[in-house]
Amino acid sequence: MIAIPKAVNLDHLKQNFDADNVRLDEDDLAQIDAAYPPANAQALFEDGVRRRH
After folding, report:
1. Rounded to two decimals, what is the model's pTM?
2. Within 13 Å, how many C-alpha atoms sit on residue 35's CB side?
3. Are 20 and 37 in contact (CB under 8 A)?
């Protein structure tokens, strides 16, 4: 699933449709995970509690 922003012209609409053809391999996903580690639910909860107090 991808988000498609509004298209203001035909070329932009074509680019939006082409975005669905992007494929990520295992190396791509590993690089994304390294740059943005998956969130830890407990850490997110504790951070939220700290911010409220």
Report:
1. 0.45
2. 6
3. no
pLDDT tens string for the chain (53 positions)?
566 777 788 888 888 888 888 899 999 999 998 998 877 888 888 888 888 76
Are 19 and 4 contacting, i.e. CB atoms less than 8 angstroms apart?
A: yes
In whole angstroms, what separates CA 6 from the centre of its chain?
Answer: 18
Q: DSSP readout, 1-53?
A: ----PPPSSHHHHHHHHHGGG----HHHHHHHHHHSPPPPHHHHHHHHHHHH-
Report residue 42 CA to chain centroid gap.
21
**Cα–Cα distance between 7 and 16 in angstroms, integer?**
8
Q: Where are the domains of the chain?
A: 10-52
